Endonuclease V (Paenibacillus jamilae), 234 residues
Amino acid sequence: MRHRKMEPIINHEWDLNEKEAVKLQQELSLKVTKEDRFPEIQYVAGVDVAYSEQSDLLVAAIVILDASSLQVVESIVVEDAVHFPYIPGLFSFRELPPIVKALKQIKTSPQLVVCDGQGIAHPRRFGLASHLGVIFDIPTIGCGKTRLWGEFEEPSRERGACSLLMDHEEVIGGALRTQDNIKPLFVSVGHRISLETACNWILKLCPQYRLPETTRQADQLVRKALSQINQGSI
C-alpha cells in the first residue's frame, strides 16, 4: 500500500488564460463525487504552498501522517516558479503544479488529502481540493481558514459545533469549530467524501489546535524552506 506511485489520471494544460481556466473548472466540476468512496484510511496527507516575497518562487510541501497516531511518516518540499497570475477563484492553477510534482515523488500513498483551501465551497464548486481530488481521483477535503463563498450562521462556541455554509439553497460546506471559543474553519467536500465525514476527519486531525495537523505540519515545512531560501542557505 505504501509504495504505489501517485500519478494524475487526468492530465491537462496549466498554461491557460483566465477564460480557459474557468471553462476547465466548469467541466471538471461535473466529475466531483460528494459521497464517501474510499478504502480504509491509513495515511492522510496535508498540502500547503507558500510564496517568496522576494521573487517569483513558491514552495509546496506534502506531509504524510499516520491516520491513527497523527505522526509524520514522510514529507517532501518542492520549489517552483509562479506561472499563473493571482486571480481569486483560480488559485488551483497557481498552486497545483508544484503540488502535483511533490505528490509524484512521495513513497507513501495517502488515502485522503486535506488541503489548506476550498473544495466545493467555491463559486464554480471547484476549489483547489476538488481540483486535486478529481485529477488524482483521490478523496480530498477543503479546509480553509477563511470563507471564500457562501453564507453561514456562527456556530456555538464548543469544539465540534458546526453550521452549514450555504449558497442560496445549496449546502456547500460547514463552519466547524475545532476547539472551544476559537474561530471556525471552513470545511467542504473536495472529492469522494461526504461533508459529514469530512468534518469528522478534520476534528480528528485537530486534537490540540485550531488547524488540522496536516495543515500545521505542511505550513511549518514551507515556512522553514522559504526562510532558508531567503537566507541563501539552499
User: Anything to note?
Assistant: The chain has one domain: 18-230. The mean pLDDT is 94.
